[in-house]
C-alpha cells in the first residue's frame, strides 16, 4: 500500500528547514517515497506525518495556506488544557516550547487563555521540533523495524512516549520518531513474581507496556488494594523517561525510587536485539536502564514492577501567605530545620512556592499515627495559625486518608497549576542531608530565600515558582541490601545524590509558548539557569535529577550520575550503540555538535565551580551579592527588551 499522507506543507519549507550541526544525519525529507512506502508496509501502515498538535487551527502551516476545519479546531481548543488529551496527540508536548524551535522562535503554540483564535489566524504554524515522521508503534517488531530503518537511512531518531520531558529529549527538528504511547496492554499482576532466570520471588509485581501512564496504574492499584511508587501526574509514562531517569514519588521516602521498584525490563537494543534485563541476566543493561536516561540505551517495551499493599496515610495540607517576605523566610526556615526529622519519619510530598502567591504544602507519611503526625507538623501549623490583622498567616489541616485520595487531590492541584499550552524553563538541585543540620541550616535557608527575593525582583514575562520536593529515598536507601546500595553489584545508575539527598529543589518558570522572540526565551532560560547557581555552589556534593533538570546543567556527568556511574554507563553505551543511534541532549554519549540539538537556545553555563569542590564565597549569602544579582538581571532585561 502506498504511503499516501501529504508531504506538501513540509516540502514547501525548503532547505532552511533542515538545520545542520557539525555532526549530522540525513534529512527525513531526503528519503525516497518508494523507501517510505516499503517501510510503511513493513510496519502495517503505522507510519504517519508528524504534525504539531494545534496546526489544524492555523490558516498557514509551514508557509502554506490551508483550510481550517472548525470542528477539529474547536475540539483542540477545548481540550488543549487536558493533559491526558495532549499525551494522546503525537504532535502534543506538555511544555509547548519543546514542540517549537526555541533557537529560531518557530512554533505552533497558542496563548495561555482558551480559546485563542487570534494567534492561528495572524501568523503561521511552524513545524519547530515536532518530528517530521513517526511510527505509531504497537509491538516489539514495530520498534525493531523502526530502529533498523532509522539506522539504514541515517536519520535523526527520537523516542517519544508522553511528551512530558522537561529537557526536550522527545522532540527534534527534522527527525524521525518512534511513538510508544499506544503500547498499552492490560496491566497484569503476578503474585510472588520470579524474574526470568532468577530463582527467588520478589513479591507482587505488575507487568505493563511501554506506553502505560500513571493514571491507569493508580486506578488499577486502588481497585486491587495496592500502592505504587509513581509520578504525581496521571499523564506521565511509567516505563519510558520517568523510569529510565530515576522516577521519584511522594512514596519514595518509604518505598524508594522507580528504579528501586522495577524488577525486570524488556527492551529492544539499538542493534534490534530484544533482551530481558534483571538482576540475573543482562545486568549491564539493567544497570543502564535504571538511571542512565531515556532514549539512550534501548527502547523499553515492557517492565515488571513492584506493588505494595495499601496503607493509610497521615496527610497534612498547609497554605501560607506568599506576599510577605518575612513570612516566606520563616516558612523556609521551618521547612529546612525540620526536613531531617521529617525524612526520618517517612514524610514525603511537595512544597510549591509560586513567587508572590500563597505557598502550598502537601506532605504525607504512612509511618506515623495521627497524633504523632500532628505533633511532628506542629511548627508548620503554628505558623499557619498565627493571627494577623485580617485573620491568620495561612491555614492547615491534617487527617488520616486513603493514599489514592491523597494522590488524586495532589494530582488535581498540580494540574490546576499548569496553564494550557504553557512553555516552561527549569533548573534544579538535589540537596544532601548535611545541609539540613547544624549551622548549614541557616546557609541553606538564606540561599533559598534569596532565590525567592531575586525571582520576585526580576521583570520577566513568566510565573516563577520555587518547589521543594521531599521525594528523595533517603530513608528507604538506608534499608537497601548491600548489593543494591551505591557501589553494590545490583546498584542502579542514578546519581548517589538521590541516596544522601533530602530535597529535590526546582526553580521553574511558566510562560506564553507563542513567544517568537528568541531573545526573550533565551533570557528566561539564562536567568532560570543562574537562579540555581547559588545552590550549586553551596552543595558541590549534591546532584540533579536528569528528568527535571536544567538542560544547561553545568556538569551533567557529575550531577546526573556521579563519575563512577557515568564511566560505566559510557562504556555500556559504546558497546550497545557504537553508532549513537539513540542519543538525547545531555545524555550518555551525546555530542553537542549534533544538529539534533540545533533548536536549544544558546544559554551560557555560568557556574564553573559546579561538579568541583566549590571555592568558599562568604559574600554570596549576604546582601551585596544578592543585590548585584538583581541589578544584573534588571539591566539584562532592559537590554533585551530595548
Ligand atoms: C507535569 C509533570 C509532572 C511530573 N511529575 C513527575 C514526578 O512526579 N516524578 C518524577 O520523577 N518525574 C516527574 N515528571 C518528569 C518526568 O519524569 C519526565 O518528564 C519524563 O521524562 C517523562 O517520561 P515520558 O516517557 O512520560 O515522556 P517523554 O517526553 O515521551 O520521554 C522522555 C524521555 O524518555 C525517552 N523514552 C520514552 N519512552 C521510552 C522508552 N520506551 N524506552 C526508552 N526511552 C524512552 C524519550 O526518548 C525521552 O528521552 C513530571 C513531568 C511533568 C511535565
From TrEMBL:
PROSITE patterns the UniProt entry points to: FAD_PCMH
This protein's record includes keyword Oxidoreductase: yes
Domain FAD-binding PCMH-type: 127-310
Superkingdom of this protein's organism: Eukaryota
UniProt name for this protein: FAD-binding PCMH-type domain-containing protein
Pfam family name, one: FAD_binding_4
Family designation: Belongs to the oxygen-dependent FAD-linked oxidoreductase family.
GO molecular function, one term: oxidoreductase activity
Signal peptide per UniProt: 1-20
Keywords: Oxidoreductase, Signal
